[in-house]
Specification:
Blueprint (H helix, E strand, L loop, with lengths): L3 E8 L5 E2 L1 H7 L5 H10 L5 E3 L4 E4 L1 H10 L3 E6 L4 H11 L7 H28 L10 H4 L5 H8 L5 H13 L14 H13 L13 E6 L25 H6 L4 E11 L4 H10 L3 E9 L13 E9 L12 E3 L10 H10 L4 E4 L9 E3 L7
Parallel strand pairs: 2-4, 3-5, 6-7, 6-11, 8-10, 11-12
Antiparallel strand pairs: 1-5, 3-4, 7-9, 8-9
Helix pairs in contact: 2-3, 4-5, 5-7, 5-8, 7-8, 8-9
Length: about 375
């Protein structure tokens, strides 16, 4: 049976000890701002401690009281389970102002607690003899929350997505965590900066599959350097880019008779034709993709992309109603519409390759510059 008391004792702060988990979560918090107040008024709020004097909540007041040479009021509470003690540390510090580092530390501990609880529940269920009804609490029979939503709520974040972003920052740009605070940067801003760090890493041009192909679609990761460092810029590429010189060196593995489709935008139209010259391909026509929504731009806002059809040798096509205009909705950044691939498949004969692919496609060979296709 749990033993607890709400009796307040006054003790010498030097008789107490910090809880190692609290130090792990919150670090050595500064307390200088409390010393003068405690020296004048004393400690007004009691500390929560274990029966052995291990501090669960109130570490700043404890440190300041030692310096101010003042006794501290304490409430001793017995925690029968180590998990209860961990949860108490987080619960009793729920309303303190925290940095992103401290929020992340709390969330990590909460996930560990839930994992331990789940392991215990599973062990209890497996050890329960058949035919015997197991007593469970109301909490146990309620639908389980998604872990990320539960973690977010426990540490005071608005949604599970915010916790996901905080975890992302912790993984890819952890030095920003201490800067996340009411007087500093937001979780959203830190997340965008962490994403940006991943985006601007230099691309490693992927290896091109062996053999030659009769039909090749190429969508190079053109170097959109303008405002590349601006994490708010809507036109920023969400993948590593290549320089024009790097693109030139990746000549497509075309057959003697081949059709090559080279995607470009208005900004790189001149470069695209120059690259085709270097690859010794002959431009024949241009397909224009008209999107269903307007994009960004400096002189005019873009609503089209272009694909130059170039050839090598004397390829054969099945020309019926295929047009130089393709009307199709815009998709994720740089992803081309399914209607384009249907057009290519009905027009062109032979084995097919997509270079710098974003998505795997049945009946095609591919290589991709994005992570999931490496």
């Amino acid at each position: 049976m749990e033993q607890q008391s709400t009796i307040i004792e006054w003790v010498d702060p030097k008789s107490l000890k910090p809880h190692k988990l609290s130090v792990e979560i919150y670090g050595e918090d500064t307390y200088a701002d409390l010393v003068d107040s405690i020296r004048e008024l004393g400690v007004l709020q009691p500390l929560y401690v274990t029966p052995k004097g291990i501090i669960i909540s109130g570490h700043r007041r404890w440190r300041a009281a030692i310096e101010a040479q003042k006794q501290v009021p304490v409430i001793r509470k017995y925690y029968p389970d180590a998990l209860d003690e961990k949860q108490a540390i987080i619960e009793l510090n729920r309303y303190r102002i925290k940095s992103g580092q401290q929020l992340y530390n709390e969330g990590k501990i909460i996930k560990e607690i839930e994992a331990e609880k789940a392991t215990k529940r599973k062990a209890q269920a497996e050890g329960q003899p058949r035919g015997i009804k197991q007593e469970v609490s109301v909490v146990e029979i309620l639908p389980q929350e998604k872990t990320r939503d539960m973690v977010a709520r426990s540490i005071g974040l608005g949604s599970g997505k915010q916790w996901d972003k905080l975890e992302y920052v912790a993984e890819y740009l952890p030095e920003l965590l201490p800067q996340i605070k009411p007087s500093g940067i937001s979780i959203d801003k830190a997340y965008r900066e962490a994403k940006q760090k991943q985006i601007v890493k230099p691309a490693q041009p992927p290896e091109i599959p062996e053999g030659v192909f009769s039909v090749i679609v190429i969508d190079p990761p053109w170097p959109y350097y303008k405002r590349q460092g601006d994490i708010t810029h809507r036109g920023r590429a969400p993948y590593p880019t290549m320089t024009i010189e790097e693109i030139k060196t990746k000549s497509p593995p075309y057959a003697d008779n081949c059709i090559v489709w080279l995607w470009t935008t208005n900004a790189f139209m001149h470069d695209a034709f120059h690259i085709l010259d270097i690859w010794e391909l002959e431009p024949k026509t241009i397909l224009t993709w008209v999107k269903n929504k307007i994009g960004v731009g400096d002189w005019l806002r873009g609503q089209t992309e272009h694909c130059i059809l170039a050839i090598k040798g004397h390829p054969v096509v099945n020309l019926t109603n295929q047009s130089t205009v393709l009307h199709a909705p815009a998709r994720e950044h740089s992803r081309k519409p399914d209607e384009f691939y249907k057009l290519v498949e009905t027009l062109c004969q032979g084995n097919k390759l997509e270079m710098y692919a974003r998505v795997k496609r049945e009946g095609w060979e591919f290589h991709g510059i994005e992570t999931e296709l490496q």
